[in-house]
Amino acid sequence: MYIKNPMMFLPGLLLSSAILAGCNNADNHSVSTDEAGSASRGFTGHYPIQIVCTIGQVAEMVAQIGGEHVHVDALMGPGVDPHLYRPISSDVSKLSKADAIFFNGLHLEGRMSDLFVQMARNKATFAVTEGLQSRSDSRLREPPEFEGMFDPHVWHDVKLWADCVADVAKMLSEFDPSHANDYQENANAYADQLNKLDQFCKDEIAKIPENRRVLVTAHDAFGYFGKAYGLDVFGLKGISTDSEKDIAHQETIQNMIIQRKIPAVFVESAIAPRTVEALVEPCRDAGHDLKIGGELYADALGPAGTDESSYLGMIRHNVKTIVQALSTEIGN
Ligand SMILES: [Zn+2]
Questions:
Q1: Which residues contact 259 (CB under 8 A, 6 or more apart)?
Q2: Is the pLDDT of residue 275 over 90?
Q3: 175 CA to middle of ligand 1, Å?
């Protein structure tokens, strides 16, 4: 059972409701104040603070805010699907040795939920989306097919992600108050970059003719992106990649593509391209020359050494790829 907003706060430890949300039965996993243990006392070890994160987007945010005071390790590299990711024994060891853990939350790392509950008993464990949830942020998407849960892909709305930056600065400051000023300063600098990126997204997407602002991808990761920047979004799979949609759903999307003369659809870096490629042939059989518009980074950053290996580069790449493919008229 999912509890949307248990609002559970412990002294010195912001225990994520997303931790509880990940459990099969949240009531069985309530964590008492006693169990918070040493985490409630904040950081007392040697610098840099050893922090383990799940996805690259979270790792980058924490590294940017923490600066020289933290050492950040990400468990999930390029091309890794966080919905399906099961922690291996070396992950458990890294998490156990860490001074603090940061993860996305909102059930993104669905198969690590029980582990986060365990870790939160004696370690500072933070969901970066906790603030959005505890404030009941009206921008949080709650698609009916996700059965009462929020859409976890908040980083695709750059403004929303910038709010998470402010929240993470507070979490780090609470954990390590002696460097609170540095964390705040670093967070402000990173948020400035994100605000510029948000404007870039708006300016670029506005270049696509209005009737072609339709984004078809492998899974429903781009709902926040569509809402923030004005595109209709369709995913062949659901919000989580382990949910399959049926043939009727695929046919509905095919018909929409043909009717609205959408020139291109997009594959994703962490999902086999066949899901999206299956649309091409039926559309071409119907006389609509549908193209694969390129590869988008939905849930994982790009390979090391590329511009897309950073969060900012990932968003820029997605926007450029989408604008280029959708600006071209069908048949050209
Ligand atoms: Zn996803």
A1: none
A2: no
A3: 29
